[in-house]
Amino acid sequence: MMANLQQAPFDEMLIREYLLDNPDFFNRYPELLVAMRIPHAERGAVSLVERRQELLRQRVSQLEEEITSLMNIATHNERIFKFNTELSFKMLASQDLGELRLVLSEGLKTEFGFSHVRLITVHDIDSELANIWRHRVHSGYYFGRLTQSESKRLFGSEVGSVALTKLSDENGQVIFAIASKDPTHFHPDMDSLLFSQLRRLLDHMLPQL
Which chain positions lie within coiled-coil regions (predicted)? Predict the structure, then answer.
């Protein structure tokens, strides 16, 4: 019978569940912590205690990296918030459309290094712009790259990547367009919070200018 027991395979999941349900198991049998050896890629074999310490160090290191990443994101978001607040007040103080365009363009170019910032009115007689209006911003936003022809029509030259949105119908067919020299700066998966906030402010202001 002992031979049969020795040959019978252990159910690893049962052992795992038992140890999870009895976290004090090794407190009752501390000699096992030292006696058990675990294969290690660099050190051959280590005790269970050593392996646990190594895993804890790795987890601490991982948590430190995650905290650093979260702090960097928080710092970036705080910078964006402060910039957006300051830019919004400057835009609200604009006396006419020309000043508004200048404040918007200089603010975004200075803060983010964008190559172009434009408010473009689309006329149906302009087939190129009309196509961009219908096909690029039909869903409200477009982030990514343009064809060479589209880039030149919107910005007068080739650009890397763009962020496009159309303003509300109260303003007619107007495209708010930003371009970057970096082909990867604007992409479909990016966050649109800052862009959408600026669009809402423009929707509010343009009818009054």
Answer: 46-73
Looking at the DSSP bridge assignments, the partners of residue 182 are none
The per-residue DSSP string of 152-197 comes to HHHHSS--SEEEEEE--GGG-SEEEEEEESSTTTS-TTS--HHHHH
Domains of the chain: 57-206 (3.30.450.40)
Distance CA 209, CA 198 (A): 16
- For 144-174, what is each residue's pLDDT tens digit? 999 999 999 999 999 999 999 999 988 889 9
Strands (E), the chain: 37-40, 44-47, 116-121, 141-144, 161-166, 174-180
Rounded CA separation 79/87 (Å): 12
Token reading at 204: 């509010």
Tell me the pLDDT tens digit for each residue of 101-153: 999 999 999 999 999 999 999 987 788 898 999 889 988 899 999 999 999 99
